[in-house]
UniProtKB/TrEMBL annotation, chains A, E:
InterPro entries: AAA+_ATPase, ABC_transporter-like_ATP-bd, ABC_transporter_ATP-bind, P-loop_NTPase. PANTHER family: ABC TRANSPORTER ATP-BINDING PROTEIN, TAURINE IMPORT ATP-BINDING PROTEIN-RELATED. GO terms for molecular function: ATP binding; ATP hydrolysis activity. This is ABC transporter related protein. It comes from Aminobacterium colombiense (strain DSM 12261 / ALA-1). Residues 2-229 form the ABC transporter domain. Keywords: ATP-binding, Nucleotide-binding, Transport.
TrEMBL record, chains C, D:
It holds the Pfam family BPD_transp_1. This is Binding-protein-dependent transport systems inner membrane component. Its main location: membrane. InterPro entries: MetI-like, MetI-like_sf.
Length: 245, 290, 248, 248, 245
C-alpha cells in the first residue's frame, strides 16, 4: 500500500499542495482528475523526489520511504526524449541502466513498438516524428522500467481516439498481468472511467482530494451504461464547481 | 669525448660565429668536447639555467651577470666572447644629433626595462643632459626609429641594427658607450653555475682553449669562417651577416681571461646608477682558469 | 553541498596545492630564480603591494577597455556573420589568422597606428579577448532552435526584434562562456601589449623584474594579474547568475 | 543562398580586403619591415615553401599533440569540476592564473621539467588550448536541462551512463565552440612554445626572421600558420556537421 | 476561399502528404481529425511555409500565394514559449512586432488572460507553470495575432474538461465575431463536433481526405442528440478502419 500523509509544497510562499493525504491499494489503478494547474504534476514530482517536498511522509508497503524515485516508473507530462537518440534507443534507456540480461527486454521493446504502432520508426530521431509518436515513445520508455509503481502524467493526451483506446486496453492488461500499482493523470473522463479502480477528483490549488470514486471491478466496462454516465456527470459537475470558486 | 651544453643569449647570430667555427671545424673535437648549442626563449634564461646547473654553459651579458651576482645567484664567468660593449645609443644620422648633449629634450627609446633605461640615465648624467623622455620600445627598434616615434634608442648593437639601418637605406648614427663615459665592459661572456664549475672544471678549461683557438682561426681566415657560419646557420641572410661580420671581427675577445679591474669598475658604476642594489666584488665571480 | 562547506573544501584543496608547490620547491631545491616558492611569492606580493598596485591599476584599465572594445566589436561582427554566411566564410580565415599573429609581428604596426600610449595595449588585449567571444556568440546564435526561428518568422518579427527576444537570450549562455574565456585571456593580452611602449603596468613590471632576475616579483605580478582575472571571472559568473534566471 | 554563390561572395570579400591592404601599403608607403604588402607575403610564402614546410611540419605536430593532450586533460577536468563544485571553486582560480602567465616566466621551468625536446612546446600549446575547452565544456555541462537530469536520476542511471547519453551530447555544441577557439589559439600556442628553446618550427623561424628584419618571412610564416589553423577550424566544423545531426 | 491543389511533401523519399486537395470556405471553422502521425502537423507547416512543399499550389481569395505565413496565425503543437519571457510578455510578442497602437492590444491580452484563467500568472516564467497553462498561453499568443486565418494544432489537448469547454466556446465566439477562417487539428471528436462547420477525416500517411462532413449550422450544439451520436460513430469507425490498414 502507498500512503501519503500531510504532503506539502509551496512555490513562492503559496501552497500548491497542502496537507495532502492519500491511500492507494497495491496493484490498483488510480486516476487523478483535476483542473489544469491544480498541482497534479507537482504531486507526481513530489512522489518521485523530482522536487523536494516541504513536509509530509510517504510509506510504501508499510515502510517509510524518502520518495518513490527508485520504486516507481514516471512518465512526465513533457516527453523528455533525448533528441540525439533514435526512438528505439530512447525507449531502451532504462534497459541500458539496469543490470539485467538484455535479450528479453530487447524483445519486449520491439513488441511494444509494434503494439504502439511505431514499427518502422525505430530508427527515427524524435525530431522527425509527430507529437503523438513522441508521446507513445515516452510511454514505451516508461513501460520498459520494471518497477512496481507506474506514474503516468497525461500519457495519451496527444493521441487519436483509436490509438488511445488501443493503448488504454494495453495499459489495463499490463497492470493486470504484472500487478503494477498505477497512478495516472488524465483530463479525459471517459478514459478515467474506462481504466480506473478509483477516480480521484481534485480541487483547485492548494490541491486536495475532493471526491474519491471507487468503480465496480468489472473490466472492460461499457461506458454507455447509465451507471457510468451518472458518474461522468458527477465528475463534470464537481470540476465545474471547482472552476467557479 | 665529453659532452657540454651551451645556451646562447639569443637566436644564433654573427656574434656566435666562433662557436660554430669551433664546432664545424672540429676544434671542440680536438679538445675532446662535444658541444650542443641551444637557443633560449628570453635573454635572461641562459643565465638562470646555467646557475641551476640545467645547462653547463651560457652566454650572458656582463651587466646581467653582475645583476645576478648582486642578487645572490651563484654564477661564475668562465670566458669571453665579445670583449667590449656592442650596445650603442642609436639614432638616424643627419638629424641634428652630433654629440650626446643634442639629445636634450628628445625622446629616447630603450630595449630592456630595468637595464637599458638605467644605462640611459647613466649616459645622460655622464654627458650632461637632463631632459629627455624615456620610452620602452622593446625590440621594435628599426620601426620605432624610422617612423620617428623616438629620436634615439639605447640598446641596439653596433654590429647589427646599425647594419640593418644601412641596408634599409638610412644613415645610422650612434654613440659607443665606452667612448662616452660608461665604463668598458664585456658584452658577451661565458658563464656557468658554481657547482657546474666545480664538477666540470677540466672540461670548461678545455672549452676556453677551444673557443680562443676558434676566435684566432676566425681572425686568420675570416672568409672561410663566415662560410662555415652561413652553412651552419642557413636561415641567416648572407648580405646582412657579411656586413655585420666585418664589424664584429675585431670585437671577438682577444683573450679568455677577465680583467677584474675592468669588471669592478663597471660593477661600481652599475651600483652608482641603481642597476644593482648590493655591491658586487667581481673577483668572486670571475674564473680565469685557476 | 552547502555553500559554506563547498568553500571550505575548495579552500582546503587550494591550500593543499600550495603546500605541495612549497614542498616541491624546498625538497627538490628548485632555485628561486626558476620557480619561487609560493610563500616567497606571497610575501613579495604583499610587501611590494604599493608598487604592484601602481602597475596593476594601469593594466586593469587596459583590460577593462580591451574587454569593452572587444565586446563592442564582437557582437555586431558575430551578428553579421550569423546573418550573412558569406561574411562568415570570408572573415573566419581572418579571425583564425588574428590568433596566429605573435606580438612582435604586430608591435611595429601598433606603434605606427597607436603610438606608445595606452591604445596599443588596449588593442592587443582586445584582439585576444575578441576571438572567443565572437566564436562562442556565433555558435550560440547558430544553435538557436529552428522551430523558434520559424515561429518568429511567422510572427513577422523584424530582425532587430527577433534578435532581442529570441537570438540574443538563446545565445547568451554561449556568449557568457566566451566572455569567461575572454576576461581570463585579457590578462595576458594586456601584459603582452605592455611589452612594447609601456612605462607602467604589470607586464612592464614583469619584463623589468625578469631582466633584473627578480623572478619572485615576476610571480607576484602574475599573482596580482590573476587576482584581476579572477575578479572579472567572478563578475561574469555573477552576471550569469543574474541574467540566466530561466535556466534553473 | 547557395553554397557556390556564398563561396563566390566570400572570396570576393576576401580579395577586396587584400586589395585594400595592398593599396594601403603602396600608397601610404609603409616600409616592408613594418607591414609587408600581401603580394610580397604571398610571394615569399610560395618561393620559400620548402623552408616554410620544413618548419611548419614541426609546428603542425606540436599543435596536433597540444590539442590531443589538452582535450585529454580538459574533458576529465571539466567533468570533475562539474560533479564537484568545490573542485571548480578550487581550480578556477588556477585556470585563470594559467592564462595570466607569460611564457618567459614559465620557460625555464618547462626546460627544467621537459628539456629542450618537443614536449616543452607541446605543453605550452596545450596550456593555451586547454582553457577555452574546459570553460566551454563546463558551461555546456552546467546548461543541461534540469528536467532531463531528474529523468536520468529517476531512471537510476549511473554517472558514466548519464554522461554518455545525456551530459556529453548536451554539452557537445559548447565543447565544439571551445574546440574552435582552441584550435585557433593552438597556432599561437605552439609558436609561443617554440620560444622555449626550439631549433625548428614556424615560431622559431618567426623570431629568427623578425630579429633579422625579414618581416616578409614573418608574415609568410603567419600565413602558413593560419593555413594550419584554418585547416583545423574546417575540420572541427566538419565534425560539428557530422555529430550535431539532431540540431537541424 | 482557401484552395489547396496537389500539395505534396516527402520525407526521405516517402510521401507524407501527396496530391492533397482542399477547399475551405472563408470564415468557416474546419476541424481535421486523423490518426496520430498521419501528417496533420506537416500540412499546417506546409500551409504556413514553415517547411517547404515539394509541389502544389495555394490560393487565398482567388489569388495564388506562396504560403500563408503572413496571412495566418499558427499555434503549433509544441507550445514554443520563450523560457526567458513571462507569460504576458510571451503573449504580447505579436503585438511587439506589429506597428499598430498598443493600448488596445494590451487590454485584449489582459482580457484573454482573465478568460483563460491565467490571471495572477502574468509574470510567471513558462518554466514555473503547468503544462495546461503553457498551452493556454500559447493559444493566447496565437489569438493576439490579428490575421484572417487561424491554424490551431491541438490547442486544447492538455486541458481539463471544464477549461476546455469554456475555451471552446471562446474560440467559437471569436470566430463568429471576427469572421476568422479557422482550421483546427484535434483528437477529440466531441470537440470537433462542437466547433466545426466541416469535419475533415484524414487517412493514414500519405494523407488524403477520407471523409468531409458538413455539420448543421446551429451552434452551440447539443452533442447528445442522436444526429451527432451517429456522426461520432461514423468518424470513429472510419478512424478504426484507417488504423487497420
Ligand atoms: N517552479 C515553479 N515556480 C512557481 N510556481 C510553480 C512552479 N512549478 C509549478 N508551479 C505552480 O504550481 C501549480 C501547479 O502546477 P502543476 O504543473 O502541478 O499543475 P497540473 O495540475 O499538472 O496542471 P496541468 O493539468 O495543466 O498539467 C501551478 O499553478 C504552477 O503555476
Ligand atoms: N523531419 C522529418 N523527417 C522525417 N520524417 C518526418 C519528419 N517530420 C515528420 N515526419 C513524418 O511525417 C509523418 C507525419 O508527421 P506529423 O507531425 O505531420 O503527424 P501528425 O498528423 O501531426 O501526428 P500527431 O497527431 O501525432 O501530431 C510522421 O510519420 C513523421 O514520422
Ligand atoms: Mg501537469
Ligand atoms: Mg501533430
Amino acid at each position: 500500500m502507498l500512503r501519503l500523509s500531510h504532503l506539502g509544497k509551496k512555490y513562492n510562499g503559496l501552497p500548491v499542495i497542502d496537507q495532502f493525504d492519500l491511500d492507494i491499494e497495491k496493484g490498483s489503478f488510480s486516476v487523478l482528475i483535476g483542473p489544469s494547474g491544480c498541482g497534479k504534476s507537482t504531486l507526481f514530482d513530489l512522489l518521485t523526489g523530482t522536487i523536494e517536498r516541504e513536509y509530509g511522509t510517504m510509506e510504501w508497503i508499510g515502510e517509510a520511504v524518502p520518495h518513490l524515485g527508485q520504486i516507481a516508473a514516471y512518465m512526465q507530462q513533457k516527453d523528455l526524449l533525448l533528441p540525439w537518440l533514435s526512438l528505439m534507443q530512447n525507449a531502451m534507456l532504462p534497459q541500458v541502466f539496469s543490470k539485467e540480461k538484455h535479450l528479453r527486454k530487447n524483445k519486449k521493446a520491439k513488441g511494444l513498438f509494434e503494439r504502439f504502432g511505431l514499427n518502422g520508426f525505430e530508427d527515427y530521431l524524435p525530431g522527425a516524428v509527430s507529437g503523438g509518436m513522441k508521446q507513445r515513445c515516452a510511454l514505451i520508455r516508461t513501460l520498459m522500467f520494471e518497477r512496481e509503481i507506474v506514474l503516468l502524467d497525461e500519457p495519451l493526451s496527444a493521441l487519436d481516439a483509436i490509438t488511445r483506446r488501443s493503448l488504454q486496453s494495453l495499459l489495463l492488461s499490463l497492470q493486470k498481468d504484472f500487478k503494477k500499482t498505477v497512478l495516472m493523470i488524465t483530463h479525459d473522463i471517459d478514459e478515467a472511467l474506462y481504466l480506473a479502480d478509483t477516480v480521484l477528483v481534485l480541487t483547485q490549488a492548494p490541491m486536495k482530494i475532493r471526491d474519491r470514486i471507487t468503480l465496480p471491478s468489472e473490466k472492460p466496462r461499457n461506458l454507455d451504461s447509465s451507471e457510468y454516465i451518472a458518474i461522468k456527470k458527477r465528475i463534470l459537475s464537481e470540476l465545474e464547481e471547482e472552476m467557479q470558486l | 669525448v665529453d659532452k657540454l651544453s651551451l645556451m646562447l643569449d639569443w637566436f644564433p647570430n654573427i656574434d656566435h660565429l666562433p662557436l660554430f667555427v669551433a664546432k664545424e671545424k672540429g676544434i671542440f673535437e680536438r679538445h675532446g668536447l662535444e658541444l650542443s648549442i641551444l637557443s633560449p626563449s628570453e635573454t635572461a634564461d641562459p643565465l638562470k639555467l646555467a646557475a641551476s646547473s640545467h645547462i653547463d654553459l651560457a652566454i650572458a651579458y656582463e651587466p646581467q651577470t653582475i645583476i645576478a651576482a648582486s642578487s645572490g645567484i651563484e654564477i661564475k664567468g668562465v670566458g669571453r666572447l665579445i670583449g667590449h660593449p656592442l650596445t650603442t645609443l642609436l639614432f638616424i644620422g643627419g638629424k641634428n644629433i652630433e654629440k650626446p648633449s643634442d639629445l636634450e629634450g628628445k625622446k629616447i627609446g630603450y630595449t630592456v626595462p630595468g637595464m637599458m633605461d638605467l644605462l640611459t640615465d647613466g649616459f645622460a648624467k655622464e654627458n650632461g643632459f637632463q631632459k629627455y623622455e624615456l620610452i620602452n620600445v622593446g625590440f621594435t627598434i628599426i620601426p620605432s626609429l624610422t617612423t620617428g616615434k623616438v629620436d634615439a634608442i639605447m640598446g641596439p648593437y653596433k654590429n647589427y641594427e646599425v647594419v640593418e639601418l644601412e641596408q634599409h637605406g638610412y644613415t645610422p648614427g650612434y654613440f659607443e658607450l665606452e667612448k662616452y663615459g660608461i665604463p668598458d665592459y664585456d658584452e658577451l661572456v661565458f658563464v656557468t653555475g658554481a657547482t657546474t664549475l666545480k664538477d666540470k672544471e677540466r672540461l670548461i678549461r678545455r672549452f676556453r682553449k677551444a673557443i680562443q683557438e676558434a676566435i684566432e682561426m676566425t681572425r686568420k681566415t675570416p672568409e672561410e669562417a663566415l662560410e662555415v657560419y652561413l652553412k651552419a646557420v642557413p636561415e641567416a641572410p648572407r648580405e646582412l651577416e657579411t656586413a655585420a661580420f666585418a664589424r664584429t671581427l675585431d670585437l671577438y675577445a682577444h683573450t679568455q681571461d677577465f680583467s677584474v679591474e675592468k669588471w669592478q669598475k663597471f660593477a661600481d658604476f652599475a651600483a652608482s646608477i641603481g642597476m644593482i642594489d648590493k655591491e658586487v666584488l667581481v673577483h668572486a665571480i670571475l674564473w680565469n682558469g685557476k | 553541498m552547502s555553500f559554506v562547506k563547498r568553500t571550505v573544501v575548495s579552500t582546503g584543496l587550494l591550500l593543499l596545492l600550495f603546500l605541495l608547490w612549497e614542498g616541491a620547491c624546498r625538497l627538490a631545491n628548485i632555485p628561486i630564480f626558476i620557480l619561487p616558492a609560493p610563500s616567497r611569492v606571497l610575501f613579495v606580493a604583499v610587501t611590494q603591494a604599493p608598487l604592484l598596485a601602481y602597475h596593476a591599476a594601469m593594466t586593469g584599465i587596459e583590460i577593462i577597455l580591451g574587454i569593452f572594445f572587444s565586446i563592442t566589436a564582437a557582437i555586431p561582427l558575430a551578428v553579421v556573420m550569423f546573418v550573412y554566411p558569406s561574411v562568415e566564410q570570408a572573415f573566419s580565415p581572418l579571425l583564425v589568422a588574428s590568433q596566429a599573429i605573435p606580438v612582435f609581428a604586430l608591435a611595429p604596426l601598433l606603434i605606427v597606428w597607436f603610438g606608445y600610449g595606452i591604445w596599443s595595449k588596449v588593442f592587443m588585449a582586445a584582439i585576444i579577448i575578441f576571438f572567443p567571444i565572437v566564436v562562442n556568440l556565433l555558435e550560440g546564435l547558430k544553435s538557436c532552435d529552428s522551430d523558434y526561428r520559424k515561429l518568429f518568422h511567422l510572427m513577422g518579427a523584424p530582425f532587430f526584434q527577433s534578435f532581442r527576444y529570441l537570438y540574443w537570450p538563446w545565445a547568451l549562455p554561449y556568449f557568457l562562456a566566451g566572455l569567461k574565456v575572454g576576461v581570463s585571456v585579457a590578462t595576458i593580452g594586456a601584459v603582452i601589449g605592455e611589452w612594447v611602449g609601456a612605462q607602467r603596468g604589470l607586464g612592464y613590471l614583469m619584463i623589468q623584474s625578469n631582466a633584473r632576475l627578480r623572478v619572485d616579483l615576476v610571480f607576484a605580478s602574475i599573482l596580482w594579474l590573476t587576482a584581476i582575472g579572477i575578479f572579472l571571472w567572478i563578475l561574469v559568473g555573477a552576471i550569469e547568475k543574474r541574467t540566466l534566471t530561466w535556466t534553473r
